[in-house]
Amino acid sequence: MFDMMNIMNKVKEAQAKIKATQAELVHLQAEGEVGAGMVKVIVNGERRVLDIEIDSSLVNEKDKDMMKDLIVGATNKALENIDVKIKEKMSSATAGMMPNIPGMDFGSMM
After folding, report:
1. What's the pLDDT tens digit per position in 21-54?
2. Where are the domains of the chain?
3. pTM above 0.90, yes or no
């Protein structure tokens, strides 16, 4: 039988750990690159774009549309990469804190 007080204490502890971990996400970074490294985008754990690097060979008026597509692609890739890191960080923050309840994924709580 479950000890409800123990479970409630674990939930509160997990919530505090999740909140503390969320505050650390600003320091987490991921990079997305496309076009064989011609465009790179760096984002943080708060899903904010920090930097965009564009190879000088792309800075040409004729290539403007291609550059735009590459930036969008690199940004989306960086955001996908940071989502993986966020999930890993949140999962490790709550590892072993909660009982294994089927269907409950505390690592994905955002």
Report:
1. 888 888 889 999 999 999 899 888 888 888 888 8
2. 26-98
3. no
What's the token pair of residue 15? 């919530």
β pairing state of 29-34 and 39-44: antiparallel
CATH class of 26-98: alpha beta
Say which residue, 60 or 100, is predicted with more confidence.
60
Cα–Cα dist 31/43, whole Å: 6
Give Rg (Cα) of the chain: 20
SS3 41: strand
**For tokens 């991921």, what's the residue?**
30
**CA–CA separation, 86 and 32 (whole Å):** 15
Please give the pLDDT value at position 106: 54
Position 68, amino acid: K
| CA neighbor of 51 nearest in space, from 32, 23, 70 | 32
